[in-house]
Amino acid sequence: MKNKIINIENIRKILSERRRSGKKIVQCHGVFDLLHLGHIRHFKEAKNYGNILVVSITSDKFVNKGPGRPAFNEHQRLESISALGIVDYVVLNNHPSAAQAITQIRPNFYCKGPDYKNHAEDITNKIKSETSLVRKYGGRTIYTKDITFSSSSLLNSFSGIYSRKHKSTINKIKKKYSFNNIKKIIDQMKKLKVLIIGETIIDQYNFCEALGKSGKEPVLVLRDLKTEQYLGGSAAISRHLSSFCNKITLLSMVGEKGEYLKEINKTLPKNILFKYIRKKNSPTIIKRRFLDYVANNKVLGVYSINDEILNIKDEKLFNNYLNKTLKDHDLVIVSDYGHGLISKRSAKLISQKAKFLALNAQINAANIGYHNMRNYKNLDCVIINDREIRHEMRDKTSTIKDLMRKLSNEQNIQNLVVTKGTEGSLFFNKKSKKFYSSQAYSTSAVDKIGAGDAMLSIIALCIKSGFPEELSLIVSSLAAAQSVKTIGNKEAINKVEMLKTLDHFLK
């Protein structure tokens, strides 16, 4: 059985020898998360086209089927498929598409299930490029005809991936909304013109080895191993939306000397128009975090920042930008980190002129005790965590629901979302006076940094596009779950991955 599991770099040589003896090679590719009768029939039919059946499986890190997936890790999936007598070889494909595996295997016949025959229904649009690649190497793409079974449907119904509450929510959503209808609305989001306002932050993650206590002082000593750098703050939000909307404007600030400006422009997708001011006497904001390399636990944070409010000249320039751009955008998303970009006058201007205004006014180590969201009025959507709303209302004992009602009335917030970490989130609609709840969908969090921004990005789009409240909350909760899978804002929320998650989620 183990002899069937071959390193993908070695499979080409092995298959070349088999071809010389006249053998025809057949390839099947997929996740095969829960091996079932449909897979076995698929393999049997595929084997009829040739002599050698090679199954390539997607590695864990490229499986985009929602929280908790894959249910079986890559080693378990390799082992289960290699146990089938009909399969000759199994390889692990450590790439997001089958292209690398096809290049190594070069099959005479590349077999996909009948659900892939209509290329127009392929969310990822990868099947077209895969069939072209197979043709390039002299092969043919075949679609098997047997009945299909869904691993996702079986796992959603019978596995322990989701709790009883999760399953109840999934079944409720499935009865009310079809995936095709949801996809149509999400596809229409590309027409929205979105303006994102807030500080751009450079997130630096310094991975270290803990050496121990200093011999002379009571301090922890770390050895620096590697550094990774990502766009944070409002720039991260713009990246989250870049695959959903065609036209995005980012209005932000950098340091007086324009530090990291080249890196920012290089990293931002091309459909984002970056407008900025150079803040006087300020660096571009850098938030450095030092982590234990093994456990990824944060040890220390060091900020390079000048969080004084803009001077009169800079504020005037910023407000001129606001006056010119606010009227031209359908949706305005403000992420106010309290680092001096948005003054009371600017916040008032935004509140008055935005057609649809979504806000995340975060409390962080630099602004706690000073920062609040009272500068903003007439908000269409606000996201805040349970700690922040208690700080905002100066109330330790009232229920979260009572605080949400009170804050919504005081600030005229139409849709208010409070996130509660592993307990999920709560949504209040001021007009209907109804609450909606969602459980957390992340099975494990690598890093919670940026989850609120990811959730705000998607829920603002959903509400603006006319999604019902309960569906908006579910979709944005899945976005947050996608966000916490990686360190910081390393990966942006991706429309294709989101659609794949929803497709499997609703099976």
- How many structural domains? 2
**Alpha-carbon distance between the two ends:** 32 Å
How would you sum up the global shape? globular
Mean pLDDT: 88
Number of strands: 18
Low-confidence stretches: none
β content, as a range?
15-25%
Radius of gyration: 26 Å
* CATH topology call of the largest domain: UDP-N-acetylmuramoyl-L-alanine:D-glutamate ligase
Strand order of the largest sheet: 10-9-6-13-14-15-16-17-18
The CATH homologous superfamily of the largest domain is termed Ribokinase
Tell me roughly what share of residues is in helical segments. Answer: 25-40%
**Derived structural class:** alpha/beta
Q: How many helices in DSSP terms?
A: 17
Question: Judging by the overall fold, what is the CATH architecture of the largest domain?
Answer: 3-Layer(aba) Sandwich
CATH class of the largest domain: Alpha Beta
Question: Quick one: biggest sheet?
Answer: 9 strands, mixed
